[in-house]
Amino acid sequence: MSPFRRHRRRPSEAVADNEAIPAGPVDDDEAAALRAAIEFRSTQPAADLPAAEFVEGLRRRLGELGSEGTPAAVDRRRFLAAAGAGAVAAGVAGVVADRTVLRPAASENEATGPLEPAAGAWVRVAGTGDVSAGTIRFTTGSMAGFVSDRAGELVAVSGACTHQGCLLRLNDEAGRLDCPCHRTAFDAEGRVLFHQLAAAPRPLPRLQVRRNGDDVEVLLPEGDRPHA
Amino acid sequence: MTEQEPGHPGASGEGHRARPLRVVGASDAYSDWDELYADNVVRIYRLLYSKVGNRPDAEDLTAEVFLAAFGPLRLEASRPEVRAYLSKTAATVLASFWRRRLGREITGIDLDAAAEFLERPPPDGHAAGRAQRILAVLPARSRRILELRFLERRSLRDSADAMGVTVANAKVLQHRALRMAASIGEDEA
Lengths: 228, 189
Fold this sequence. Notes:
- The complex is a heterodimer of chains A (about 230) and B (about 190).
- Chain A is an alpha+beta fold and about 230 residues long.
- Chain A is about 25% helix and about 20% strand.
- Chain A has helices spanning about 10-15, 30-40, 50-65, 75-85, 85-90, 130; strands at about 120-125, 135-140, 145-150, 155-160, 170, 175-180, 185, 190-195, 205, 210, 215-220.
- In chain A, the strands form 3 sheets. In chain A, strands 2-3-4-9 form a 4-stranded antiparallel sheet.
- Chain B has 9 helices and no strands.
- At the A-B interface, helix 1, helix 2 and helix 3 of A face helix 2, helix 3, helix 4, helix 6 and helix 7 of B.
C-alpha cells in the first residue's frame, strides 16, 4: 500500500508547488514521479533563478561568519587591501557586511547620478496606493522605469538594463528586476544582485521621484507622458 | 540506492580530513571573496535547483555548500579550481540531503557535467525542449494536468477546477502523468 494514502503529502506534489520536499521514505513509484516533477519544474524559464533576498541574505551570513573577531566598522576597500594574502588564512573574512554583491569591475562602483532631463517636468506615473503594495512599472514615450516604496521613501529607477539596454521585467515573486536578455538582475533600488557577464553592469540610473498628494510623480523629459 | 562518494571533506565529515585547495596563484583567480561569491552563487543555486526542483531546498543546499566550502577555499585558486571544489561540495551536500530527507538518492551530481554547467551555465529554459517532447506524447488529460501544474504554475485546486475534476482526482491524475512522463523520459535518455 502506498505510504501516501492518508497522512503524507507526496514529494512530487510539493515540487509541483515549488515547496520543500517532505521527509519520509518513498517507494520506487514515487521516486520516479519525483524525478519527473523535478525535471519539469526546473526546466521552466526563470524557475531556477534565486530570489534577491536569498542571495543578499546568504552573502550577509557569510560576511557575519567571516567578520567574527574583526572590527565591525572596517572600510571594505582598506580591509581588503590590508588583508591581501592574509585573507587566505582569514577564510571568509573577505566577505564583509556591506551591500556589494558584485565583482569589483571598474564600472561597478561608478556613481550614477539621478537622471535629470535638461528640460523636465513632473508627471504622475502612479498613485501612492499603487506603490505601497509593491514595485510598479511604468513606461512613457521615452523611457521605462520602476517605482517602489522603500520603508516610506520613494525610489524610482530606469527600467533599461545597463548592459545592453534590454527592458527589465518586474519579478514580483523574487523581489527583483530581471533582464530578459542575459542572466542579470537588479533590486528595486537599482543595485546589481547578480549577473553572469564578463564584467558587472553599472547600477540602474535613479530617476527623480516625489509624492504630490495622492500622486507619485517622476521628473520626465518635457512633453513626455506615461502610457496608460 | 546509489551512494555518492563524499567529495568535500568538511561537508559530511567522518574519516575525511580537511584539505584546502592548493595555492596556484592563478592569473584568473578571484580578487576577493565578494567576487567569488557573486560569480558562483547563481551557478550553484541553478545546479542544485535542477536537482531538487523547489526553491526552499535549493536555497538551503546552496547555503550549505557555501558555508562548507568557504573555509577551505583559497582565493589564489583558479576559477575552474574553485568551481570544481564547489561542485564536489554540492555533490556531497546533495547526496547527504537525499539520505536525510527520503532515505534514498533521487538525483545526483555528475562532477564532469557539473563542471561544464558551472563553467558555461546553460541558457534559460535550456531543457524545456525535452520536457515539451515528453508532454507531446502523453495522453491529453495527463498532458493537461502537467501543463497546468508545471507550465502555468497553477495550484492543485485551480488545476482541478480547470479540468472539471475533484482535487483528489487531480492528485491521482498528476501522479499517473508524472509516472508516465518518467517512463517516457527514461526511454528517451
